[in-house]
Amino acid sequence: MPLLNLKDYAGVIHLHSAYSFDGRTPVTEIIRAANQNGVDFLLLTDHSTLKARDDGFEGWHDGTLVIVGEEIAPRFNHYLAFQLQTSVATAGDPPELPPQIYIDRVRTKGGMGFIAHPDHEGTELFHVKHYPWIDWSVTGYTGLGIWDFMTDWQNSLSGYLRAILSYAFPAFFLSGPSPSTLTRWDLLTQERRVVGIGELDNHDTLKRVMGFNLSIFPYARVFRLIRTHILTTGPLSGNSRNDIITLFDALRNGRAYVALDYYRSSTGFSLLMAEEGRYATLGDAFHLHRSAELKASIPYRGRISIIRNGTLFHRATGKDLSVNICEPGVYRVEVSLKIFGYYRPWIFSNPIYVTRLGHRG
Ligand SMILES: [Zn+2]
Ligand SMILES: [Zn+2]
Fold it and tell me: Scanning 68, 132, 161, 344, which has its CA 20 to 30 A from the CA of 50?
């Protein structure tokens, strides 16, 4: 986005290493896969521990900035927490701790948190339990996972043949964010800023399927799947401490979009609102005077949909789209890409929050 001088960093959020009871891959191996796949930042979220940071893994590793957060994961209501000095989990916590308690703990410690895989369904065929978010009375979280690779992929495992194909070609079996997640997100953003992120939730677990030990998934196979792009004002400096702050500031403000970067990289996507020399982009609030121009651009031809308050507002096919905005509302963009004759989900942006001034200033 040259006009606002924004830099686009593509990374992955929500991963489990050998520091998780249900993970097995050493962090060094995950970092190697991230380096090889052009992952700019990696948000590690082992279960209730920041041990990877204590062991010195946080910081730049060649082209990848590793940042250590944690996942609080009782039976339901899993929560990703970042920017913490110490874990919010305590040994005496009951297994059914109400989520508002850990949301508040994260806030009290100055961190930010995201509701993880809110509509996870599991899969009966392969005996994977469901881990949805069920307590929606909560407040004070920064955002939520709008598109989780594991939720989406597991939903494709409806039969053995499909499962084999889906294991071999996961990208082709992803159908996009769960519609119920998007509906809920669209309602929430009409109340306040709720930042949408992408998740992988990969564990590299070994599953014995039909006599074979399959890894779900080797990290190198998932790092080009669902990515979160964070737009920063100016480039990162190479100083780990400062760069982590820069990335989190942008993320907290919703300067982010989620994309399936497997077919084509989405880097270069931009969304800009402009009126009378004033500009806004992803996550920003914008005061409408009379009418503004909303312009979406993508690096490859696709089907661009503008969603206003959860409803399709405008749709066109091409490399950019420009519409006049005369009404306040919460505007976000979805893009799908035609691959082998079918439109497949590609980009899901955070919204621009458009209000109208009471009277002209
Ligand atoms: Zn989880
Ligand atoms: Zn997880």
Answer: 132
Give the pLDDT confidence of 217-273 residue by residue, as tens digits. Answer: 999 999 999 999 999 999 999 999 999 999 999 999 999 999 999 999 999 999 999
In this structure, the answer to whether residues 63 and 10 fall within a common structural domain is yes
Distance of alpha carbon 13 from alpha carbon 340, whole angstroms: 29
pLDDT tens-digit series, residues 327-346 = 999 999 999 999 999 999 99
CA of 126 to the centre of ligand 2 (A): 18
Cβ < 5 A residues, ion ligand 1:
73, 78, 116
Give, as residue ranges, everything with CB less than 5 Å from ion ligand 2: 71, 201
276, 210: one domain: no
Cα of 25 to ligand 2 centre, how many Å? Answer: 14
Burial of residue 139, with CB atoms counted within 10 A of its CB: 0-12 exposed, 13-18 middle, 19 or more buried: exposed
pLDDT over 60 at 360, yes or no: no
| 276 CA from centroid of ligand 2 (Å) | 45
128 pLDDT exceeds 80? yes
Distance between CA atoms of residues 340 and 349, nearest Å: 24
Ligand 2 mean position, distance from CA 147 (Å):
13
> For 183, phi and psi rounded to 5 degrees?
-60, -45
User: Residue 338 contacts by C-beta under 8 Å, 6 or more apart in sequence?
Assistant: 301, 302, 303, 344
- Which residue segment(s) compose the domain that 296 sits in? 270-356
Domain boundary pick from 260, 285, 303:
260
Contact 47, 21 (CB under 8 A): yes
Domain count, the chain: 2
HSE of 24, CA atoms in CB hemisphere, 13 A: 8
Residue scoring higher pLDDT (265 or 5): 265
Model-level pTM?
0.96
Please tell me the chain's helix, strand, coil percentages from 3-state DSSP, rounded to the nearest 5: 20, 40, 40
Ligand 1 centroid distance, CA of 72 (Å): 8
Last residue of a domain, one of 208, 230, 260: 260
Backbone φ, ψ for residue 229 (5° rounding): -100, 130
